[in-house]
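Section handout, structural biology tutorial.
Before the tutorial, make sure you can parse a SMILES string by hand: atoms, branches in parentheses, ring closures as digits. In the record below the ligand is zinc ion, and the chain has 278 residues. In the tutorial you will relate the predicted structure tokens back to the input. Do not try to memorize them.
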Amino acid sequence: MRKDRESKQTLRKQTAIQMRPKAQAERKVQANRPKAQAKAKFAQNVWKGILQLLFPLRCPVCDRIVVPAGEKICLECMGKPRLLTPPWCMKCGKKLAQEGEFCADCRSKKHAFDRGRALYAYDSVAGSIYRFKYGGRREYADFFGEQMAEYLGNFIRSTQPDALIPIPLHRKRMAVRGYNQAQLLAEAVGSRLGVPVCPDFLVRVKNTAPLKYENPKERQNNLKKAFNIARNDVKLKRVVVVDDIYTTGSTMDEAAGTLKEAGVKEVCFIALASGTNV
Ligand SMILES: [Zn+2]
Ligand SMILES: [Zn+2]
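Predicted structure of the complex:
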């Protein structure tokens, strides 16, 4: 019995001795971690610097190369995109000319989405958004996403979303453009707010003509059944749909309708800009 106890004690001691070097090694790794992190950060900054020299960032407002390197927008351009301020429509977030609850559009039409907000007045960023969509200026997403996270962050958090869902492009248009601007915005916002982005949940099955060639009625008809759900292995209760421009809400309604048919309970949205003269 006594022997047995002794052997147990010896075993415990041995184990303690065996574990010591490992614990020391772990402490060493932990002590080295800040150094390793600093090294990685330095390498990252050097790489970033090289990239900035090779591909200098352009200002989303004036499209000139931003000075000093590393900034996302020129100092003098900072105030040019006009943030939408209250009063705004409680449903679609459009700027209201005077105090009120809903805009004329939302008073007369029942939307499929629950509510949404936009960041800028469209006329103040029209040229920017055009270059962002059609001029290959995908880098603007960094500045726009940062601003959306900052000014629409509280709204997004208040909806408690399971995911951000960018309005998808049809695969043919995606092949030509090479990127989906709504997805870039969603990723820039999602990474800042810690909300996952689901870019492959909703797909566009109809390749609709660009907005400028249609009147609102034609657009609404053309958008019918424009979207489909590509994944049924993901269960989402509340989502925030992300788009670049909100105008009549027909795209957003069609997307929200499809999402709700698939079982999503609440569909809110954010847009980079909204306005009536789009
Ligand atoms: Zn500028
Ligand atoms: Zn409205």
